[in-house]
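Structure in, sequence out. Go:
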């Protein structure tokens, strides 16, 4: 379809090129070959009378004209999506859809497993792909590599919608025969003991509890670094080591392994697990339905957990400051 001399199909290609600043990445996003995407860029250059993207060193940069086009092109496409491309009614019983979710094994264990079992009953033809946490999950959302991101509120982007699912805090877990855990764990004893922790991705990004503790005057002695939360319990069995673990996960593992759970001797801000999606997917009825189901399961679990300690209100300004520091330190800004 053409509007004047412009093939309107090229607007989608232009949006991808302006966003990715790369022909190859835009081609992946558009599910086109690089040659087809290069051809589209050539026609766009001809129409606008501007290079739009130029090679500088090993990268491509946008021209001034291209920078001016980013927001107008995005706004036009969003208007088309929301007003012209009217989606058919969503019926979970008949919907055939794959939803890509990025989540840690902790989130999968304490929420997703139960939620997906329920979704199988309500939406038998829907499919779900759970991807491990990457070094930069916000980038995965913005490039459309995933549909939903489930992570702590400190790690999400303020540019896209999100929904709080549940809160959790931290406890100490260790072997039931560990003499250091026979009574209350003091701050002095906590820092004397060896610790096991989890880090993620090639960048070895720390979990929030490790990141927060690093900022304290005393440092933990990390003796084992594991690649996942679920591997932590087995690494303290039969040892004098301890692990700082989410309470919800700890409550499950102490019922399965000969482990004990003790309260932390100092305060770590509680986490809020949230689900986030790209701004352009706000009208996606299937994703909104999945988010609602996740929230419903999270609320039901919270109401049924009589042994969960209610969390104290946390100053929102403090949480905002922590979020800024977390994203700066982990390179997610």
């Amino acid at each position: 379809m053409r509007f004047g001399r412009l093939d309107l199909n090229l607007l989608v290609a232009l949006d991808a090129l302006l966003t990715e600043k790369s022909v190859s990445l835009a081609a992946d996003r558009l599910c086109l070959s690089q040659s087809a995407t290069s051809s589209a860029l050539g026609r766009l250059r001809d129409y606008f009378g501007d290079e739009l993207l130029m090679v500088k060193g090993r990268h491509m940069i946008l021209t001034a004209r291209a920078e001016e086009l980013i927001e107008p092109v995005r706004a036009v496409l969003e208007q088309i999506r929301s007003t012209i491309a009217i989606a058919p009614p969503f019926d979970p019983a008949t919907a055939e859809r794959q939803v890509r979710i990025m989540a840690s094994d902790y989130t999968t264990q304490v929420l997703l497993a139960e939620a997906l079992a329920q979704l199988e009953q309500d939406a038998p033809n829907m499919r779900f792909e759970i991807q491990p946490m990457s070094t930069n999950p916000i980038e995965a959302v913005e490039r459309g590599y995933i549909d939903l991101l489930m992570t702590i509120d400190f790690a999400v982007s303020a540019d896209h919608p999100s929904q709080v699912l549940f809160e959790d805090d931290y406890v100490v877990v260790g072997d039931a025969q560990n003499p250091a855990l026979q009574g209350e764990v003091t701050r002095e004893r906590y820092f004397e003991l060896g610790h096991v922790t989890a880090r993620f991705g090639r960048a070895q990004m720390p979990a929030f509890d490790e990141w927060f503790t690093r900022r304290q005057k005393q440092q933990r002695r990390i003796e084992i670094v594991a690649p996942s939360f679920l591997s932590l319990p087995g690494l303290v069995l039969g040892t004098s080591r301890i692990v700082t673990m989410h309470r919800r996960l700890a409550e499950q593992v102490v019922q399965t392994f000969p482990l004990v759970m003790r309260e932390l001797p100092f305060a770590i801000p509680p986490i809020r697990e949230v689900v986030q999606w790209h701004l352009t997917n706000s009208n996606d009825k299937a994703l909104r339905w999945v988010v609602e189901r996740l929230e419903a399961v999270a609320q039901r679990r919270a109401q049924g957990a009589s042994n969960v300690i209610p969390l104290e209100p946390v100053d929102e300004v403090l949480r905002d400051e922590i979020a800024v520091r977390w994203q700066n330190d982990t390179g997610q800004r």
